[in-house]
Amino acid sequence: MKNKKKNKKKKWLKFRHKIVKNLAWMVLYPYSRIKYGMKIHKFKEENKRTYFILYNHQTAFDQFFVGMAFKQPIYYIASEDLFSNGFVSSLIKYLVAPIPIKKSMTDVRAVIDSKKVAKEGGSIAVAPEGNRTFSGETGYIKPAIAQLVKALNLPLIIYKLDGGYGVHPRWSDVVRKGKMDCYVSKVIEPEEYNALSNDELYDLICKELYHNECKLDYLYPSKKSAEYLERAMYYCPDCGFSEWESKGQIITCKNCGKQVKYLATKELEGVNCDFPYKFISEWYDAQCQFIINKDLSPYADTPIYSDDITNYNQVIPYKKKIKLAKDVKLSVYANKYVISNESFITTLPFESVTAVSVLGRNKLNIYVGSDIYQIKTKNKRFNALKYMNIYYHSVNVAKGVIENGKLLGI
Questions:
Q1: Is the CB of residue 135 less than 8 Å from the CB of residue 284?
Q2: Last residue of a domain, which of 153, 178, 209?
Q3: Within 10 Å of residue 100's Cβ, how many Cβ atoms?
Q4: Which entry of 7, 63, 163, 291 is 20 to 30 Å from 280 by CA?
Q5: Which of 209, 238, 254 is the last residue of a domain?
């Protein structure tokens, strides 16, 4: 009897997850309709089957938009950062039981947990990009997703979100009026994808999930349309490495004074210049290409960028965060990060760093072996992306990797 009780306690799926899902739907569905102009197409062919759901990642609410299309609770594969916030994390685990994964790293535990959920009859969902899009275009997807699909051996659903970048770009604090459309675009049965090689399945997933929001469709008006775009952009076509500052609908290069307006159509318009890029995705691609072609060797002893940071923390995965230092300066060089203040200094050589990722709008995680360090700041204009891009370019060059604009981190 005792063994049976222990086995029941170890089950991942709980009846309360259904109750939480139904209560959340009652609150979030009307809110999302009003706030995001969102239209959810219910998946009517669900038929009590268990699925593995892949979706493109556009907004902070994507997991709710996915969940609203299905009757059953969905178990999401989520970053370890969600599980490292003490009581709040414990509450989330109790209510919806997401599957933890270490961001930007191979995580065997996440695969084992996913298999357990699938075996118990739970449908699983993940955004294979690992990050919300900064540019409006679907980002890099790790090839390992094909192996996970085959390991779970569940019917595969491709779920598309359209309009999320227009309504709420990752770099912005403002939700704009507009339209979103969320729907199942394709169902692939196990016998179909098992007939493919891993490479063929990976190519199919990338093709089916690909989406580019940078196009003329609806209007997304806002008086603050460009505000905090500098969280994503640090490249100027005239200055190269630069810093930008936004206000309202205008973003300005702090080096040369070039001004660009972000229109309700999602187009870019030069204010005092002829700006060469029509959409953010074009500018973002040019930024990636600039980094790829940039020789960083002159910056071995001179920082490329330095920013004032509020908190330098160590993340204890699935438990808590420990504050290591406060009010520090973060600097990035050609081959290292330096974190320092008047009484504290630490150097993280790129050769010892195993991965770097950006969380949310501008938190930076630096992985050194089994240790995770997190950079957080009250400066809303902080661009964490440049610190990640520079790291990946440097290590790719050291490894002799031929970059294609998609290998600058996720």
A1: yes
A2: 209
A3: 21
A4: 63
A5: 209
- Structure tokens belonging to residue 77: 């594969």
Residue in this structure with the two tokens 């459309």, named with its chain if needed:
181
CA torsion sign for 123, 129, 131, 132 is negative
Angle at the Cα of 289 (from 287 to 293), degrees rounded to 5? 120
| Segment 350-378 mean pLDDT | 94
Q: Can you list the alpha helix ranges (DSSP code H) found in 241-384?
A: 280-293
Choose among 320, 235, 289: nearest CA to 405. 289
At 299-346, the pLDDT tens digits run 999 999 999 999 999 998 777 889 999 999 999 999 999 999 999 899
In angstroms, rounded to a whole number, what is the distance separating the alpha carbons of residues 165 and 133? 8
Domain count of the chain?
3
386 and 278 both lie in a single domain: no
Assign 359 to helix, strand or coil.
Answer: strand
Q: Is residue 220 part of a domain?
A: no
SS3 helix, strand, coil % of the chain, rounded to 5? Answer: 30, 30, 40
Measured CA to CA in angstroms, residue 224 lies from 249, 320, 322 at distances of: 5, 35, 35
**Whether 318 contacts 385, CB under 8 Å:** no
Q: Are strands 180-188 and 38-40 parallel, antiparallel or unpaired?
A: parallel
Pairing relation of β-strands 371-376 and 305-316? antiparallel
DSSP 69: T
How many Å separate Cα 125 from the centre of its chain? 14
Q: Give the closest residue to 135 by CA, choosing from 244, 35, 266, 249.
A: 266
Residues ≥6 apart with Cβ < 8 Å to 191: none
pLDDT per residue as tens digits for the range 187-204: 999 999 999 999 999 999
